[in-house]
Amino acid sequence: MADVSGSSERYRQGMATRRSVLGDAHVDRASGLATGFDQPFQEMITEGAWGTVWSRPGWSKRERSMVTIALLAALGHDEEVAMHVRATANTGASRDDICEALLHVAVYAGVPAANRAFKLAKQVFEEMDAGQGVGEKHE
After folding, report:
1. How many helices (DSSP H) and strands (DSSP E) are in the chain?
2. How far apart are CA 37 and CA 49, in angstroms?
3. Which domains does the chain have, with CATH numbers?
4. For residue range 112-128, what is the model confidence (pLDDT) as tens digits?
């Protein structure tokens, strides 16, 4: 795990939120793989995405999870879709919630994007049902 003792409060909040959503194993792996080249990127997403957006009041982690999955699916970011579907074990978004989000993707971003995301989500759910934990695959 990266040393956060000298980090900003937003970074510390982001790391706490990131861990609560993605799980310690995933965050520890991502942090452990960071190099001098991509460490600034890791810090930026921890502060920006997790410390600013995901930590805001008003929406629950469940709601943020559904919106995030829909956006990632619409943009065709398969690995991120899979990672965030796994994270629903921590966010409280149900499989029905994910289905509804992906139906919106079909209408507003296109059937091919939703079709691909449904396929990915089904694969992830099969892995989860087989006992693989959150964050065991992908970055």
Report:
1. 7, 0
2. 19
3. 8-57 (no CATH), 59-139 (1.20.1290.10)
4. 999 999 999 999 999 99
